[in-house]
Structure formats: structure tokens, C-alpha cells
Amino acid sequence: MFLVTGATGSLGRRIVRVLRDRDRPTKAFVRLNSRYGELEQRGAQLVIGDLRRDRDIAKACEGVRYIISTHGSERDPAQIQYRANIELIDRAVAEGVEHFVYLSVLGCDRGYEDSLVFKAKREVERYLQASGLNYTILRPSGFASNLLPLAENFRQTGVYLLIGDPQNRTSIVSTDDLARIAVDSVEIEAARNQVFAVGGPDILQREDIPRIFGRLFNREPLILNPPLLAFDGVRNALGVVNPQLQKSLGTLRVLLANEYFCTPAEVERLESVYSMKMESLEGFLRRYLAV
Ligand SMILES: NC(=O)c1ccc[n+]([C@@H]2O[C@H](COP(=O)([O-])OP(=O)(O)OC[C@H]3O[C@@H](n4cnc5c(N)ncnc54)[C@H](OP(=O)(O)O)[C@@H]3O)[C@@H](O)[C@H]2O)c1
Questions:
Q1: Which residues form the NAD(P)-binding domain (predicted)?
Q2: Mutate to test the pocket of ligand 1, among 4, 70, 108, 125 (most ligand atoms within 8 A of CB)
Q3: 284 Rama class: left (phi>0) / alpha (psi -120 to 50) / beta
Q4: What's the 221 CA to ligand 1 centre distance in angstroms?
């Protein structure tokens, strides 16, 4: 039995699809107020709960052999990204879980103090590595599925908002590839107790994204490119009235200010271990947008 947390998220629901397509018994951890109809239709067993409650986590872990932790939240990283994963790992040890797959983030080991999410991810990685469980840690760059609403907006307006350095590099990952990698991690010997950077196959510059949109929709992109300083100004102003909001924008600031890409050697390692060819961003978008 697999347990998937964050099962209603953009990655989690794809993981449930892969598992159910392969007929694997799957528990999907969901909140009562989320949209989980599709998961149920695919034959996943629903565990209704909240990851802020330890007893819900304990119940979800009963009788589970594999855990794939994909949940996340910008709102309360200390509780959701950190505490809930520590509790899941402790329950996994108690239940004798065979393999724990953890969705981290590319760059979490670079010491970005401004982002609670990045800090929480790194600490959870450490805790998992010391737990004695078999694990696979996946550190993805940005998900291609994040770009679908932006592409739809571009289709209507031709406008793309790019905050910060347009030349910063990124290796956007196909969210479907990542879902397959997460599921395969429990079965592939070479993925056991390993950490993988997951992205690519291409190293793009951020300004390539509106160019790809332009090609897809046959439209010249209008790129609005405020500098990072403008973001900082707005963030600081917000901080005067709402210091908590200012703090929570730290993760976005870290994402906007830095590069997240996989080297060719990292992509090669991934494709070799998982016996796959990573899908390009353009391929992913064409598939979903039917263009
Ligand atoms: N998106 C990216 O570009 C990216 C890049 C690198 C790493 N990651 C990491 O990859 C993982 C998956 O990302 P994603 O974009 O697929 O996430 P997502 O779409 O934001 O989904 C988050 C999931 O977590 C669930 N969740 C949040 N708080 C919860 C709570 N208190 N109790 C139960 N469930 C709760 C949400 O449930 P509801 O439906 O009820 O809200 C949802 O299913 C995350 O760990 C994220 O940090 C994401």
C-alpha cells in the first residue's frame, strides 16, 4: 500500500494517476475541503485529515508500505513543510515502512536564510537520512504545470511578467516525468538512499519561456520585466503594515533571485537511473495546450 500526501496538489494527483494506472493500492491523504473526486474515481482510498494533526498522520500511516510525501504550503512552512514531515517519518519508522520518497527542492542546500520553505526542506532531508528508513530525496526545479495558467494568460494577452534577471537559468521539469520518477523510486535499486536533482532536459534562460509561448501561439511576446529591486520595494512596504506577509514572501524572493538548473551530468544520471528521456518544456506545453 502506498500513501501519497499532497494528493490533490499538481504533483500529488499525477502520482496517484501513475499508481492507479499501474493498479497499485493507494491511500490519498486529502483535506475534506479539497477537490478529490478524481482520486476516488481512479480507485484511490481516501484518508480525510489534516497534516497539522498528528493523529490523522498516524491513522494514515497504518498498514502502509511506501510513503510519497508531496504536500506543501507557503502559508505555514514550519508546521506543514517541517513538522508534518517529521511526524510522517517517525510514523514510517514505527510502521516499518519500506521506502520513503520525499519531495524537496533544488537549491535547498545553499543556505537561503530568507526562505522558511527551503530551510524546512533541508532539515527534513537530514532527518530522513538519519532515520534508518530507505529513502529517495528528489530535488526538483520549477514544475512545468505551474506555467499552464501563465500560458493561457499569454494566449489571451501576449503579455508575460518576468520579475528579475531574464538571463537566470532554469531547468523546468515536466510534472508528469517527476510523478513517474517518484513512483519508480521505490522499485529501482539505484535510487535507494540517493538524492537527485530533477529538472531538464534543457537549461533554459527565464526569457526563453515567453519565447516558447510566442512560438506555441504564434504571437510576439510583450515581456514586462520589473527589476528585483521593485519587488523588494513592494515587499518592504507591505512589511510596514504586515510583517508576517513580508516574511512569507521570502521564498518567492529566493526563487526570483537565483538560478535553478540541472547540469547535463545530473540530467544524464537521472535518465540513466530511471531509464527515461525527460520531456522538454515545449513538449509538455504542447501536450496540455493542444497546440
Ligand atoms: N511547484 C513547484 O514548482 C515545486 C518546485 C520544487 C519543489 N516543489 C515541492 O514539490 C511538492 C509538490 O508541489 P506542488 O506544486 O504539487 O504542490 P501544490 O500543488 O501546492 O499542492 C500542495 C498539496 O499539499 C496539501 N496540503 C497543504 N496543507 C495541507 C494540510 N494542512 N493537510 C493536508 N494536506 C495539505 C494541499 O492540499 P489542498 O488541496 O487541500 O490545499 C495540496 O494537495 C511540494 O512539497 C513542493 O514544495 C514544488
A1: 6-187
A2: 70
A3: alpha
A4: 30
**Torsion angles phi and psi, residue 115, rounded to 5:** -115, 110
Angle of helix 208-217 relative to helix 281-289, nearest 10 degrees, comes to 40
Spacing, Cα 149 to ligand 1 middle (Å): 17
- Give per-residue pLDDT as tens, 198-230: 998 999 999 999 999 999 999 999 999 999 999
Closest CA to 282 of 224, 164, 201, 221: 201
- The owner of cell 531574464 is 166
How far, in Å, are 139, 181, 265 from residue 272 at the CA level? 17, 12, 10
Q: What is the distance between the alpha carbons of residues 254 and 227, in angstroms, rounded to a whole number?
A: 14
For a substitution probing ligand 1, which of 3, 5, 8 has the most ligand atoms within 8 Å of its CB?
8
Residue 138 in contact with ligand 1 by CB distance below 6 A: no
0.85 surpassed by pTM: yes
Specify the amino acid at residue 69: S
Domains of the chain in start order, with CATH, are 2-140+174-198+262-276 (3.40.50.720)
Q: What is the DSSP string of 155-195?
A: HHH-EEE--S-TT-EE--B-HHHHHHHHHHTTT-GGGTTEE
- The letter for the amino acid at 151 is A
Helix, strand, coil: what percent of the chain each, to 5? 50, 15, 35
Can you give the pLDDT at residue 10? 97
3-state SS, residue 262: coil
Task: Look up cell 508576517; give the residue.
Answer: 244
Q: Give 88-106 pLDDT, tens digit per residue.
A: 999 999 999 999 999 999 9
